[in-house]
Amino acid sequence: MARSLDSDPARANFLAYQIKEKKADKPCPRCGNHHFSIVGESALNVRPPGTWGLNARDVPITVVACSNCGFISLHASAILEKVPGLLGGAQ
Q: Cα-Cα-Cα-Cα dihedral of 87, 89, 10, 18, to 10°?
């Protein structure tokens, strides 16, 4: 189930900062708008084709929407949370 970040603005700000730091803040691919909103967090159920739920796993995601056209992009939360130089974060 999706989790709204309305009650956790610090978390939303952290995720927005990480997206910008990782240079994933390019204009919307649909309309060219430069403004986005962190919609919330959820999980994407990933499973090998044809397994019907066997070996499935949930990947935590951050849902981001264009503030103009509503185009949705998904970011792996675990990657966004990696801070360079801290606890083995991506360099």
A: 170
